Design the sequence.
């Protein structure tokens, strides 16, 4: 298994190109199942999770063609990553999403809504628990039932049937769910009649999906709000849609600049995708300057102060930035309280961060971080995706050598991380195998 070796303590300086958002690309790829016409996605990231979704979709009969024009190739249509993917689901050859593919990635459950809407039937392996909590899909299933699907869970599979097609309904989500909103949005586009999704998630990735569906001929209103109104249509058409910038990758590299007390320009991204994180960074003393499709982050003056944050659904502080924020706070003066409200078991990075000398105490869903002037490099073990990157960030700030073991999680969500950090002066190398 690969590990990453870091020689820390060096301020980062330079420019980093941000890729397309993994969490936008995955539902957009699943949306291709809704039509027999091609869907072309531009600004695609190249990540392990994208490969997993591509394998799953191929297995359902989707043809996938990729083009790589090269990052920064200036082919405006291919987006900053220079990569496009065309998915054509002219024939669905299987309505089953097998255990072996679903267990690798929870987002596989996003094929459920589109398959049952188009084919009247879908069988999807239940995504199991995962490192950051139990993460059930009960809300997806209840909402699909409200659209008239019959759902049975048997032998580890969700079996959804709607032989006469789905029918529009009013759905109020009891809790904000990103994946649930996406699954229902896709299913409702092909339902008969009107659907209203209330207490819908408002993440930018949801808007990206809704705009993609509209470009394919769907009729979705209320985009960007907590109430989505969908008028069902009988079929969808071809479209070409850009994947939005990855706000979590943006925030992660913004923190890399701040935690090393350097200055980095992040390009191919937007300030407004990450207001809550940038606001907290400014409060901590980081200089954040929005530009034209870019954001420049600097903390060269050194001293940062502790700032409390609480994770919340968008536009609140994202749970996917909580671990990275904790690493930054471990280097700020004073205390900060970090409260996690989305997932119940998302502090697994804490024992690893303390190996750098960070002082963190967890009380239920809150952690108190008391910052230190200096962290020191240490051997650590990566757990989930965002926890892994928080260890890389701590390693960049720490004096001496850090070895982050078991980094395969990183490849699920960060493209060419060593190269991007290395171009800004970081000493980061991947050690293959071992
Ligand atoms: C998505 C993101 C993930 C992010 C999360 C929250 C993708 C591929 N993943 O995950 O990176 O951390 O949003 O911003 O986009 N819940 C239920 N029942 C359900 C569904 C969810 O109880 O049927 C709970 C979950 O356990 C969790 C909360 O609702 O406590 C939010 O989960 P949800 O928004 O659905 O997260 P994901 O879509 O899985």
Sequence:
């Amino acid at each position: 298994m690969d590990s990453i070796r870091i020689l820390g303590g060096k301020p980062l300086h330079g420019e980093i190109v941000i890729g397309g958002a993994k969490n936008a690309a995955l539902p957009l790829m699943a949306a291709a199942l809704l039509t027999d016409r091609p869907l072309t996605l531009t600004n695609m990231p190249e990540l392990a999770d994208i490969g997993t979704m591509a394998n799953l979709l191929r297995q359902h009969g989707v043809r996938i063609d990729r083009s790589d024009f090269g990052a920064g190739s200036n082919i405006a249509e291919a987006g900053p990553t220079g990569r496009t993917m065309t998915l054509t689901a002219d024939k669905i050859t299987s309505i089953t999403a097998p255990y072996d593919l679903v267990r690798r990635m929870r987002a596989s459950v996003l094929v459920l809504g589109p398959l049952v809407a188009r084919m009247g039937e879908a069988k999807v392996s239940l995504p199991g628990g995962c490192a950051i909590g139990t993460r059930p899909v009960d809300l997806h299933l209840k909402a699909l039932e409200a659209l008239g699907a019959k759902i049975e869970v048997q032998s580890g599979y969700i079996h959804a049937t709607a032989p006469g097609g789905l029918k529009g309904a009013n759905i109020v989500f009891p809790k904000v769910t990103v994946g649930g909103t996406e699954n229902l949005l896709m299913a409702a586009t092909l339902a008969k009649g009107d659907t209203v999704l209330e207490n819908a998630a408002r993440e930018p990735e949801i808007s990206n999906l809704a705009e993609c569906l509209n470009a394919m001929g769907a009729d979705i209103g209320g985009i960007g709000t907590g109430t989505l109104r969908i008028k069902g249509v009988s079929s969808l058409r071809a479209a070409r849609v850009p994947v939005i910038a990855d706000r979590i990758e943006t925030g992660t590299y913004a923190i890399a600049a701040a935690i090393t007390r350097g200055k980095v320009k992040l390009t191919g991204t937007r300030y407004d995708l990450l207001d809550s994180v940038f606001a907290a960074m400014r409060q901590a003393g980081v200089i954040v300057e929005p530009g034209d499709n870019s954001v420049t982050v600097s903390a060269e003056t050194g001293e940062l102060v502790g700032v409390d944050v609480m994770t919340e659904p968008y536009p609140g502080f994202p749970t996917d930035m909580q671990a990275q924020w904790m690493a930054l706070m471990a280097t700020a003066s004073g205390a900060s309280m970090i409260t996690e409200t989305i997932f119940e078991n998302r502090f697994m990075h804490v024992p690893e961060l303390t190996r750098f000398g960070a002082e963190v105490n967890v009380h239920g869903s809150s952690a108190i971080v008391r910052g230190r002037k200096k962290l020191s490099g240490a051997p650590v073990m990566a757990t989930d995706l965002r926890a892994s990157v928080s260890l890389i960030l701590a390693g960049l700030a720490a004096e001496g050598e850090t070895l982050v073991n078991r980094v395969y999680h990183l490849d699920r969500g960060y493209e060419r991380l060593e190269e991007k950090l290395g171009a800004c002066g970081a000493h980061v190398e991947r050690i293959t195998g071992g």
